[in-house]
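A quick aside before the break. I want you to see a complete sequence-to-structure record at least once, exactly as it would be stored in a machine-readable document. Don't worry about memorizing anything.
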Amino acid sequence: MIRLRVRLVQGLALMSTGALAGAFGYGAANLVPTFNAVPLDMRLSFHAQLMQMNGVTMHGAMGTSALSRSVAALLAQLYSGAVRVEDDLRPAVVAGVEVLVGAGRL
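That is the input. The structure line, written in tokens, reads:
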């Protein structure tokens, strides 16, 4: 069960960072040349609307990427035995990670 949780967190981390990289790559490859090809007033109004619509999506993707990579690193260290956690603290640390991951719903 622990192995499944670690795999799920690693999968989420890879998917979210890949989606974020794809979004930035799409913007660099397609939007920037398009912005340069249109008049300035049209570019600014389109850019303002684009940022308004994509703001939540991009911030969510960045937050998910950062949180999932951090939790994946913590899980890898915790379950590999590299982190020495006192026996009386281990249940609290594991419970905290499960709350972050949402493993209670699996």
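Two observations worth writing down. The chain has three helices and no strands. The first helix runs from residue 2 to 37. We'll return to this after the break.
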